[in-house]
Each structure stands twice: as structure tokens, then as C-alpha cells.
Amino acid sequence: MTQVFNFSAGPAMMPKAVLEQAQAELLNWQEQQTSVMEVSHRGKLFIELITQADKDFRELYNIPENYKILFLQGGARGQFAAIPMNLIGEKGKALYLTSGHWSATAAKEARLFCEIDEINILEQSDTLKVANLDFSNVAEQYDYVHYCPNETISGVEIFDVPNVGNSVLVADMSSNILSREIDISKFGIIYAGAQKNLGPAGITIVIVREDLIGKARKSTPSIWNYEVQAKSDSMINTPPTFAWYLCSLVFKHLLKEGGVKAVEQRNQAKAKLLYDYLDQSEFYRNTVAIENRSLMNITFTTGNDELNAKFVKDATANGLQALKGHKVLGGMRASIYNAMPIEGVQALIAFMQKFAEENK
């Protein structure tokens, strides 16, 4: 049987070693003769698990002590609403930097809760390119500035951190969290759905600077109130315990594999391999400017919709799954998150070469 490589944009593949450990422990976690899904989330063993997960995640991402880590539900979309409810204060409005579908979706949701200004920072000419990132002259009139450093659909990544002066910078890192080293201290809030680099769908991580907690409007539901969640260790209701457990295993696995520095090196090598092939190909093309090419989501097309559909069908038959591009953009998309081995990228390139030869 052909080895299967899963290029899904999310839920995405997880490290094999993590799944194997979860499988081995499924019926007997911590010698309890029961699953982690079946124990009390307030019991001693589960509290030890989440305490260690917090410690491991801090070590992995070099998170300063003056930041809280919340493990919440509702996905990144839930945070689209929670952020304005928690951060809008005396200034009464926020600035949204849009560079694609998800940053624009976050801005649309925020309009339900506060006044916002929106600036499109994506230049669209022959290639997709991010324009100016210096907003220091305007940012301080806003309670916060929001952006999405990696647009999953288009494959646009912003590697430089926007300059927002003393304003609060908020980042939706759902699709590139833990993929490369960053300076957490430059951000007020970082949030991410787990289903790409952290674990399975169903849990969302919010990294929030402590001075931003306790400012929620009175009408904020308890489940979205950062102060309530922080005081309750993210457990004002029963949390997604199995998803939290799997995230804890991913953290340990990444630490064992050399941490985020080593992860970044592997991600750069994988992305370079595929982009180098695309750049020399006359059959496929990528439309993102070199300086904004995502390490996580690599988009490409043949320029022919029928040929694109045939590519996806044939790739699936050859064990290369989920390469169909998002319906918003079309074409193909290879999501090569942390768990994707370089062998998967090599197998994809080999198939692309064969397909190109057969379909000239």
C-alpha cells in the first residue's frame, strides 16, 4: 500500500509518535485502568497534566511569566468576538490589518462588538505581497491592532512584526504557531486554534499579557471573559480534556525533538524544497511574493481548472491527500505543518514531476 501523506490545512496531521502514545494509553492512562477522557478534570492527575502542559508550552515558546496561557473552546472564531469584548476600553475602537480571508473575517466579526478601522495591507498585482507594516503614527488611537501573520487560504505569511508603537498587538496565529521562533513580548495577545500545529480540533490556546486581563465589558459572557477563565484555570466548565491531553503530548514531543528552533529549521527546509521546484517548473506556478511565502501553506496551480481537478484526484489515488485548494481560491494547497515529514514533500514533488510529464 502507498504511504499516505496528509496535506490537509486543518484538522491537520499530528506527530505519529504522539498518536501512538495516545493509542497505547487510551484504555489505561496513568495506570488508572481508564481513559484520560473518563477522569475528572478537577482530579489530582489531570491537574498535574495541565500544570505540566503550561510549563512545557512556556518552555517551548519562551513565554514570559507576565503572560497567562488559557486553553479554551470555540476555536479562533470564538476569539474573533472575545477579543473586542475583552480589550475595547477608553479609546473605543480597534484597527484591523487585513491580508486575506481570515483577517478580513476577524474584522467582520469585530464590527458586531465595536467600532473598527480596517486597512488592507495586501498588494495584489502579479503576486500577492504585504505592503507597509509601520503603523506607529496611527496605532495608539486604538485599543488594539489585530492581524493574521499567516493566511492559510492564500499561503501569505507575514514574517516581520507590525510596528504599532505602544498600542496592543493581537495576532491570530492559528496556522503558524510553534512553526518558528518569535518574540512573545511584542504581542498583547496571541491566539490559535489547535488543529494545525498544537493538537486536535476542539481546543484553542490564548496567550494573553496579564495587564490586559480584567478589562472585559460587563456584558461579556463568562466563557469569553479572560479574567474569569484565568482565575478558573480555563475550567469554568468541563474542558475538552482529550484535546488538552493531546496538546500536552505534542508539547513534550516537540521539546524532545529540539524545540521550536529545530522545528523552524525543518520547516524552512521543507518549504524551500517545494518552492525551489515550483520556481523552476513551467507547468505549475505560485503567485505569492518570495518575501511573503508561507512556510506552512504552499499554494500552486496549473492555470487550468480541469487539470487542477485531475491533479487532486490522481494525487489522492497516490496517497497524497487533501491537496485541493480552498474554495475561495481554487488550485492546490500543500499544508506542510510541523508534523509533515520532509519525505512527504519529497513524495509530493516526485508526483508533481510525473504529473507534469504526463499532462503537458
TrEMBL record:
Amino-acid positions noted as binding L-glutamate in the UniProt annotation, renumbered to this chain: 42
Q: Where in the cell is it found?
A: Cytoplasm
* Sequence positions bearing N6-(pyridoxal phosphate)lysine: 196
* Any Pfam family: Aminotran_5
Instruction: Tell me the cofactors it needs.
Output: pyridoxal 5'-phosphate
According to the entry, every stretch annotated as the Aminotransferase class V domain falls at: 4-348
From the Swiss-Prot or TrEMBL record, what is one GO molecular function term? O-phospho-L-serine:2-oxoglutarate aminotransferase activity
Q: Does the keyword Repeat apply?
A: no
Query: What protein is this chain from?
Result: Phosphoserine aminotransferase
Species for this entry: Ursidibacter maritimus
